[in-house]
Design brief:
The chain is of the alpha/beta class and about 150 residues long. The chain has a single domain (about 10-150), classed as 3-Layer(aba) Sandwich (Rossmann fold), CATH 3.40.50.2300. It has 7 helices and 5 strands; from the N terminus they run αβαβαβαβαβαα. It has helices at about 5-10, 25-30, 45-55, 70-80, 100-105, 120-130, 135-150; strands spanning about 15-20, 35-40, 60-65, 85-90, 110-115. Strands 2-1-3-4-5 form a 5-stranded parallel beta sheet, with helices on both faces. The longest helix is centred in the C-terminal third of the chain and has 17 residues, at about 135-150. The N and C termini lie far apart (about 60 Å). Mean pLDDT is about 85; it is low at about 5-10. This is Response regulatory domain-containing protein.
Length: about 150
């Protein structure tokens, strides 16, 4: 039985849900990718978010750190409970730190600062393949803290 090439391509698509407001240039970068399906959700109360995400089978959530409606860390943690297979990327204005990661319940798989926003497609693919999109300084801080906890235990 021959398999339609379009069907195979659709199986390889990365379903990305973005939470608006999101900058137009970030949306544009994601919309131009042939392997990414983009859905837009308007954040409000948490129950509304679940209703909007619905059955979109998200692979990646792209969240703005501080929207006027919901805090990005809280939203990330909440989404991980309802969509455990999906990963989250958070767009932020400043360098990420350990406290940000902890506030997300260690559920954020990446942080994208303003200078990297044009690399959002690379970050989505990296996180989708199982990697993290974290600065080396934050990874070193995490390792140092975990090592200190291990020594004290």
């Amino acid at each position: 039985m021959a398999v339609n090439g379009h069907y195979i391509a659709s199986l390889c698509m990365i379903n990305v849900v973005i939470f608006s407001p999101m900058s137009d240039d970030v949306k544009r970068v994601l919309e131009q990718q042939s392997d990414i399906v983009l859905s837009d959700v308007q954040p409000g109360v948490l129950d509304d978010v679940l209703g909007q995400v619905g059955s979109q089978h998200p692979d990646i959530f792209v969240i703005t750190q501080d929207s006027e409606h919901l805090n990005g860390d809280i939203l990330c943690h909440f989404l991980s409970k309802h969509y455990p297979a999906a990963q989250s990327l958070i767009l932020i204005d400043e360098e990420p730190n350990f406290d940000m990661l902890r506030n997300s319940g260690f559920k954020a798989r990446g942080y994208i600062v303003k200078q990297q926003k044009m690399d959002i497609d690379k970050a989505v693919r990296a996180v989708h393949s199982g990697e993290a999109w974290l600065p080396r300084k934050l990874v070193a801080e995490m390792l140092n803290r975990f090592e200190a906890q291990t020594i004290l235990s």
